[in-house]
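User: We ran a pulldown and think these components assemble together. Before we commit to crystallization trials, I'd like a predicted model of the whole complex to look at. Sequences follow.
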Amino acid sequence: MSDPSRVRFPWHRSAVKMLTTVVVAAVSLVAVSTAVYAASGEVDRLDDAVFESVAGFTTTSLTVMDPEALPAWLLVWRALTQWLGGLGALVFALVVVPTFGGERRLSETAGGRGRRAVLARRWSHTANRVALTYLGFTVLVAMAYGAAGMGAFDAATFGLTTASTGGFANYRDSFAHFDSAAIAWVGAGAMALAGVSAAGLVWLVRGQVQALWRSTELKLYAGLILASTALVAAWTWTDTGGGADTVRESFFAVASSISTTGFRVADWGQWVAAPQTLLLLLIGVGSMAGSAGGGFRLLRVIQIFGIVRRELVLQLHPRAVVPVKVSGAVASEASLARVQNFQILWVLAAASGVFGIASLGGDLLTAVSGSISALATAGPGLGELSGFADATVLAAPARGVLIALMFLGRLSIYPVVVVVGWGVGEIQRMRLR
Amino acid sequence: MTAAFSAAGRARAAVKGAVRLLVADRSWSVTSPVGFVVGLGLLFMVPGMLVAIAVEWGSSTSDSEVALGLGALTTLAAGALLVAFTRLDPDMPPASVFAAVAWTWIGSSLFGALPLWFSGELGSFDNALFESVSGYTATGSTVLSPIEGVGRGVLMWRQIIQWYGGMGMVVLAVTILPFLGVGGLSLISAEAPGPTSDRLAPRVSSTARRLWALYGGITAAVAGALMIAGLSLYDAVAHALTTASTGGFSPYDHSIGHFDSVAVEAVVIVGMLACGASFTLHWRALSGNPRAYGQSSEFRTYLIVILAAAAAATMLNWLYDVSDFSSSVRNGIFNAATLGTSTGFGNASGANPAGDFAGWAPGAQALLLPLMVMGGMTGSTAGGLKVLRAQVMAKYMRVGLLRVKHPQVVARVKLGAGALSEPILQRVAGLVALYAFTAFAGTMVLSMLGQDLITASSGAISALGNMGPALGEAGPTSNFLVFTRPARAVLMALMLVGRLEFFAVFLVVVSAYERSRRLARVSLRR
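Assistant: Here's a predicted model for the assembly, 959 residues in total across the polymer chains.
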């Protein structure tokens, strides 16, 4: 290990095996959860059980069940699937994604390079520390909910689904059920924190302001939340009465969107067009890399911004050497190429999702917003999916498209495509024999 | 006889002297390539304005000859002044080439709006400007409502604007610039930063002239075919001009739907498909190599994508009972062709309501958006991202997946005979990213100005791709007055940015910023 910041993966030389492991693990978790739902007798159809399981493990808030009719143990199971999904996403983001998604080095996601690295250099230690941070964060959120006035059961389950940016609620009208300003503030703050990368959370806890300030991504994340909250509040000021209520509802909607959690406290389908578009854009952009949230990820947005800027400068000064920097460090060309590839895959998946949903019975607005939202593993959309609507507004075939999108989005597309491509190749080879 | 001869001789000598004064001895002029190119562009518009005046003069329903004449005079004066008092820089830096391209478009749009404004048919100046920008960028979105009441000369000027805009004022200027001793190839690449820079001839001037001949020939052929299909001379020419430019303006509210004729639609479809395809390819095929079409993978992809979209839209509309099978086929093919080539004609009418894709099955509408993003082939008059870029990105993606599987693999993106170098791939990917960013920003701003998500996003994509109609409230039978005045200004900016393929416009901004920073630094030192 000549470069101490380079993480050595046990499966470094065989990406297909690693990605296959990930996909197989995800599928088997879904299968187990499907069996649990089917055994509970609360679902009538097998595809509903699959949908609920996929939504759980992908930390998407889309549901096909009426949570208020479910027994308590099943509510806990639902919340637990999301929590496990969030944990899996964190480990996945820190250990697997760097092999194809962005920097191979953990400098960005793990925070700092070399000796400054917050998270361990060995992947197993990384996974352990991430799990501990995540557990601690979950407990803190649950305690904060309790302090804000939630019952113990609700505080525990909502803690699980908040920390994981999942968004399953125990009530049909999500956070509006509590009708409490304190709970909504806690929820919004917790969601905003859940979209921060694990390394960022560690910095926050340790009070390492310098490290926080160095991270372009964290600054962008905080700035986006503040600016979007201000904009949404300004746009909805007159319609929602103004004052602290409007600010809280705006902050809640923004935090829920950018962290791709999907809790709702107000029906933003009733608002004017501008905040709706902004919230959908935030869902698409998503949270920080190395968090449990989904979406395109801010880190990639920053890198693509850098690429675009470099192209413009190169047009003017063709022989200039323009590095693309993220948080002060120069991003490698290979990582930039991977980000560009990911961008194409993401847009392609979203467009296919729009076509799929629209062809199978959703209107265009529902299809566009539903596809982006499912791919970002958020949940709320526009059109038929706006307000407190659940996934049952769409017909079963269209929900099948949502399942595929959630799965693709959670696994960052690559593993699924590579494994499917590998599978197809194997079958062809078998036929040749 | 000798007297007449000598008079003619003297006149010729006088003209020669004047030309020499303007072209050769230019010691009093200012070195401003941008001003010179813009001036040339304006002078080129004057013949078109004269044609519009002639049409107006021949028509009995309206008399806007004076307004059109005034517009022509102003343009002539401004163009002549600019050409007289500025001169080219023998070695133009790339930045000013880009600036010249961008400003030619902006200047032409401003002066092209004058006849429309003077005629009083469009009300305020900003509406005239919208119509003119939409024309020069070959977009085809209109704020005229209703179109039918407007005089023929003004309407013909709109069509002519698009004809000019379609091929590109840059190509027009390129036919002149080489005579003045400036290589204009950089201008072509500035207008279309595509991965290939096919040249038809070693000299730019002959390249441009050949493109011109081809463009004129296609326009004439479409006009002739439309007349055979039963249109009057005026209708045939008007629609041929905007078919060849893949613009999509029509002197009728219902666009091509006004004629409700399958024959006319078939002619227009063929014309649009021809002009959404590469002109280089056409030239090769016409100069004795008809197999060039089959050899171009971009041409194959272009046709396959449009046909597949047409087939899928047909099936979806038929399955969801939007219309019966035969009219689903007709509307599917027409609209896939009109959006796949970024033209934007409509074929909806009272007799054929299902031509309006705003009423199609949602799945079929969802197909139209990617079609609008993709646009036509490189080297055509169409807008959008261009098929070649989509192809390159698809191949780039496959290589990327291969690299995930085998991190040490040496894989290259092949296109045709050769492999694309990494810088070219980066350039294509950079443009795609820029396209996406601009589309998102446009969607956000339009929706801030009051439009719903579908209208805002499709409006932004349509303006960026120089399409014309959008989805939602701005469908093909609607009108861009549904957008508020500030939103229309945003759309104008998007059209220009899209037509100049981003870099020209953004670089003008970037270089202005750099210049101001340099100035600030100098003043600080003092």
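Chain A has 17 helices and two strands. That may be worth checking against your pulldown data before setting up trials.

User: Thanks, that helps.
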